[in-house]
Amino acid sequence: MKTTAVNKLCYLVSICAFLIISCEKPTPTPGEPTELSENFSGTPTAHAVSPADELDEASGLADSKKQAGFLWTHEDAGSPDRIYLLDRQGKIVANYTTPFINYDWEDMAVGPGPDANESYIYLADIGDNSNVRDIKQIYRFPEPSTLTSKITNFDWIRFRFPDGAYDSETLLLDPLTKDIYVVTKWLTNARVYRLAYPQSTTEVITAEKVGEMTVGVDLTGGAISTIGTEVIVRGYTAIYYWKRKATETVGEVLLRAPTKSLPYIFEPQGEAVCFDLNNKGYFTLSERRNVPSVNLYFYARK
Fold it and tell me: Is the pLDDT of residue 283 over 70?
């Protein structure tokens, strides 16, 4: 009888312990994309960019880390050698002249780099409409922290594709590994290339070909969320979205079919896209072409 009573007591203790443990909220694995909804509003906020004639060919977009509430943007081929700072109502609040030439800047990103305490802008001079530029370049420099900051120092990351010269308009910076990914534009199945961290700033790098995507034709920009769990690549008519698993590289993500297409209001020549710094949604921006003005759109997460 005594042994039986002890066994029953042990059994009850075990059951209680199991119930307590099973009711606890599991600790998410770092980078696990379980906490964010994949759904975004189909009715974005829209603010006209102003002055409208100062930003005709917006091509890249990135949410500022150092100047919260503002977004970086730039124009593409043959435009002034400067980047612009927009507020969330689309107003240009500052511009910054760069010490390098805008041959064909096509995309940008904000994220980590060599100095763990610094936030960097990556500006991708990777456009090549004629597919003749053997060497492309990415400029990396500390993100300006005030409206009057000057851009003086920069790193020059030069690379070539291992299998030809391609027009590219999409730059992706992995915030988890600091690897850079470049996606081609016009191929039916876009090709993905990787520049592994640390990228040389003294020699021309031969990019690693990762593979071919299931989408392509007109890819014009992209972004990775600040926590690295979501990837967007856009074209003129669609925005593709991938949810990244904790065990996946960005390259592996891009080679599988998109998780879904995101809401998108058609733009005159939509090229720019970025996530909100706090992962509350995503922004899009277009070249102006022949319309009086374009809007800065924000699609909020639901």
Answer: yes
Element housing 74 (H / E): strand 70-75
- Percentages helix, strand, coil for the chain, rounded to the nearest 5? 10, 40, 50
Cβ 136 vs Cβ 103: under 8 Å: no
DSSP 60: E
pLDDT in tens, 117-155: 999 999 999 999 999 999 999 999 999 999 999 999 999
**218 token code pair:** 């007109």
Question: Among 63, 77, 115, 112, which residue's Cα sits nearest to residue 279?
Answer: 63
What is residue 27's DSSP assignment? P
Show contacts of 79-86: CB within 8 Å, 24+ apart.
79/105, 83/108, 83/121, 83/123, 83/151, 84/54, 84/55, 85/147, 86/49, 86/296
Dist. CA 32–CA 102, nearest whole Å:
38
Instruction: Give per-residue pLDDT as tens, 33-59.
Output: 457 999 999 999 999 999 999 999 999
DSSP state of 163: T
Task: Measure the CA–CA gap between 15 and 2, rounded to whole angstroms.
Answer: 20
User: In this structure, what is the dihedral angle of CA atoms 114, 204, 173, 266, given to the nearest 10 degrees?
Assistant: 150
Cis peptide before 51 (omega within 30 of 0): yes
Is the bond into 258 cis (omega within 30 degrees of 0)?
no
User: pTM, whole model, 2 decimals?
Assistant: 0.88
Give a three-class secondary structure readout of 225-248: CCCCCEEEEEECCCEEEEECCCCC
User: What letter does residue 217 receive in the DSSP assignment?
Assistant: S
Q: How far apart are the first and last CA of the chain?
A: 60
Is the omega angle on the peptide bond into residue 99 within 30 degrees of 0, that is, cis?
Answer: no
Give the Cα separation of 271 and 111 in Å (integer): 20
**Which contiguous run of DSSP H or E holds residue 4?**
helix 2-23
